[in-house]
Amino acid sequence: MNKLLLVAIGLQIGLALTSDGLPQALAELTAFLLTAILYLNHKKSKSASNKNPLSPSTDVNNTNAQLTSVKRIKAS
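The chain above was modelled as a monomer; its predicted structure follows.
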């Protein structure tokens, strides 16, 4: 998705550089909007990756704590 947005932004910038008048203005507007969408998409994916912490079964510290507590129970 991000690669497709980058290609579309590049094409719109190229169109804006080679045209005049209304087509140039529309190409600039479209490139700006696509850039804003790319930024928001990147921000959303970055915040989504931060919201998904390791599950307790894959967290190394939690697993070590569980193993230690199991050893204590067996020793008792």
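The chain has three helices and no strands.
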